[in-house]
C-alpha cells in the first residue's frame, strides 16, 4: 500500500475540556497578555517560562498529596525513560523549583517573576472549567513584609480595572506553623461530633486535610459548619497583627474586601494571607484569580527557608468579561489590476507593512473584484496598481470610511 494512501477519513476533534483559541478570542487573549505583562513589568516583575512537563513529585510536594488537584486531576504518565512526569496543573511549583534549582535561596535578595501559559487539570468540564486552561501569574520570593501582600492585591486590582472588570475580593489568613496545627485539632474535634451528617468528601477530608471541609460546596455541609471554629479567631499574635495590618493597608488604598474565614484554597502550600477575586457575572466557576503567601514552599522543595507570595488569574474566565476597545487602526488592502503590476504592488505592500496592517491579493483582478475581497477582509483602505499607475509611478487609493479617492505618487503613499 502506498504510504500516502488515506486509510482513515474520520475527522479528529480536540479533546474534551480543551479548545482552540482563535479569531476574536485570540485577539482578546493577546490584548490581555500584552497589558497584564506591561502592568507586571511596571511592578518590577520579569518574565519566566518553565516547562509544561515536570516530575510528578514536584506537585505532590508542593500542591499537596491530599489536594484534589494531585489526587484526582493530574495528567500523569511514565515517559519513555521511565520517569514519572505530569503536565503542570498550576504555575507556582515550577517557578519555585527553578528558584531552588538555581540556588537563589542561598544568594539572598528578592526575585519577582511573571508567567503565562497553559495548565492542565483532569476536571469535569463545565462553563468556566476546562481541562486545559491558561493562567497569568506572578511569584515573589524573599519579601516577608505584609506590604508586599497588599502590593500584590493592588496590582491584581489594577489589572482587573484596566480591563473594566468588577469583582469581589475575598480575604482570609491561614495562620502559620504555630497557630494552624492547634486550630486544625480543634476543628477536627468539632467536626467529629457530627461527621455522620457530613458528605463523603468531607469525611475523607477530616482525615487528610480538615480545613478543606470548610469550603465544601454541599449546602447541607455548609449549614452544619455554621458554628465551626474560625481560623481568624485562632491566629497567633504575629499572624493576627499581620492580618490586621493588611486590612488596614487595603482600607487606606480604598480596596474593599470580605473576610471569608472559610476560604482555604485548593492548594496546600499557603500560610497567612489567602485571597480570591470573584465575579458574579460568569456563573458557578466564579473565581477569576487566586493566590496567597507560601512561606514554607521553598523548604518543602528542599531549599532554604524563603518567604513567597503570588497569584494567578484564570485567563479564559477573565476573557468572558473583557471587551476589545474600539480602535480605528487602518487596514490597507493592496492589489494589482494586471499581471505586469504584481511585482511593484508586492514591493509597495512590503514597505507599507512596516507601519500599517497591509493585506495583499496576489492574483490580478478587476476593480470590482478587489473591492469585494477588501470588504470581506475588513480593510478600510483599498490601494490598486495597474498599467496606467505603473507608467506614472502612482497608486490608486480609496478610503472606504470617507469615500475619498486619490491617485498618489508611490513615494508619497
Ligand atoms: P488556583 O486558584 O488553583 O491557584 O487557580 C487560579 C485561577 O485559575 C482560578 O482562580 C481560576 O480563575 C483559574 N482556573 C483554575 N482551574 C481552572 C479550570 N479548570 N478551568 C479554567 N480556569 C481555571 C493556582 O493555580 C495558584 N498557583 C495561584 C498562585 C500563584 N498562588 C500563589 N501563586
Automatic annotation (TrEMBL):
Predominant subcellular localization, coarse grouping: cytoplasm
Keywords tagged on the record: Aminoacyl-tRNA synthetase, ATP-binding, Cytoplasm, Ligase, Nucleotide-binding, Protein biosynthesis
GO CC annotations on file: cytoplasm
Residues annotated for L-histidine binding in this entry: 90-92, 121, 135, 139, 265, 269-270
Pfam families: HGTP_anticodon, tRNA-synt_His
Subcellular location: Cytoplasm
Gene Ontology terms for molecular function: ATP binding; histidine-tRNA ligase activity
E.C. number: 6.1.1.21
Top-level taxon of the source organism: Bacteria
Ranges of residues in domain Aminoacyl-transfer RNA synthetases class-II family profile: 38-322
EC main group: ligase
Catalytic activity: tRNA(His) + L-histidine + ATP = L-histidyl-tRNA(His) + AMP + diphosphate + H(+)
GO BP term, pick one: histidyl-tRNA aminoacylation
Subunit organization: Homodimer.
Family according to the record: Belongs to the class-II aminoacyl-tRNA synthetase family.
HAMAP family per record: His_tRNA_synth
Protein known as: Histidine--tRNA ligase
Species annotation: Arcobacter aquimarinus
Lineage: Bacteria, Pseudomonadati, Campylobacterota, Epsilonproteobacteria, Campylobacterales
Gene behind the chain: hisS
Amino acid at each position: 500500500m502506498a504510504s500516502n494512501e488515506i486509510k482513515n477519513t474520520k475527522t479528529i476533534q480536540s479533546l474534551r475540556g480543551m479548545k482552540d483559541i482563535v479569531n476574536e478570542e485570540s485577539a482578546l487573549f493577546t490584548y490581555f497578555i500584552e497589558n497584564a505583562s506591561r502592568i507586571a513589568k511596571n511592578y518590577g516583575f520579569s518574565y519566566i517560562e518553565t516547562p509544561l512537563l515536570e516530575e510528578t513529585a514536584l506537585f505532590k510536594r508542593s500542591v499537596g498529596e491530599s489536594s484534589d488537584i494531585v489526587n484526582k486531576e493530574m495528567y500523569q504518565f511514565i515517559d519513555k525513560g521511565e520517569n514519572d512526569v505530569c503536565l503542570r496543573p498550576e504555575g507556582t511549583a515550577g517557578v519555585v523549583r527553578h528558584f531552588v534549582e538555581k540556588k537563589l535561596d542561598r544568594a539572598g535578595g528578592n526575585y519577582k517573576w511573571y508567567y503565562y501559559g497553559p495548565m492542565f487539570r483532569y476536571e469535569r468540564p463545565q462553563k468556566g472549567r476546562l481541562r486545559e486552561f491558561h493562567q497569568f501569574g506572578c511569584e515573589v520570593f524573599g519579601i516577608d513584609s505584609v506590604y508586599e501582600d497588599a502590593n500584590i492585591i493592588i496590582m491584581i486590582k489594577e489589572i482587573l480595572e484596566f480591563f473594566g472588570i468588577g469583582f469581589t475580593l475575598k480575604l482570609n489568613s491561614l495562620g502559620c506553623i504555630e497557630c494552624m496545627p492547634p486550630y486544625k485539632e480543634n476543628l477536627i474535634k468539632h467536626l467529629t461530633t457530627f461527621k455522620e451528617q457530613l458528605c463523603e468528601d468531607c469525611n475523607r477530608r477530616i482525615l487528610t486535610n480538615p480545613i478543606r471541609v470548610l469550603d465544601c460546596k454541599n449546602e447541607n455541609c455548609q449549614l452544619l459548619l455554621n458554628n465551626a471554629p474560625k481560623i481568624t479567631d485562632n491566629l497567633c499574635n504575629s499572624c493576627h497583627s499581620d492580618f490586621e495590618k493588611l486590612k488596614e493597608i487595603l482600607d487606606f488604598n480604598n480596596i474593599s474586601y470580605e473576610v471569608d474565614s472559610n476560604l482555604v484554597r485548593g492548594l496546600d502550600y499557603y500560610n497567612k494571607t489567602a485571597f480570591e477575586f470573584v465575579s458574579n457575572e460568569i456563573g458557578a466557576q466564579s473565581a477569576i484569580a487566586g493566590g496567597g503567601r507560601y512561606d514554607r514552599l521553598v523548604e518543602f522543595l528542599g531549599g532554604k527557608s524563603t518567604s513567597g507570595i503570588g497569584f494567578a488569574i484564570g485567563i479564559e474566565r477573565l476573557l468572558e468579561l473583557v471587551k476589545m476597545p474600539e480602535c480605528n487602526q487602518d487596514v490597507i488592502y493592496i492589489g494589482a489590476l494586471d499581471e505586469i503590476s504584481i511585482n511593484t504592488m508586492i514591493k509597495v505592500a512590503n514597505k507599507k507593512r512596516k507601519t500599517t496592517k497591509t493585506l495583499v491579493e496576489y492574483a490580478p483582478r478587476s476593480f470590482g473584484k478587489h473591492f469585494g475581497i477588501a470588504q470581506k477582509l475588513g480593510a478600510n483602505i483599498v490601494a490598486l496598481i495597474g498599467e496606467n499607475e505603473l507608467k506614472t509611478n502612482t497608486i490608486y487609493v480609496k478610503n472606504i470610511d470617507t469615500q475619498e479617492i486619490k491617485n498618489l505618487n508611490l513615494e508619497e503613499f
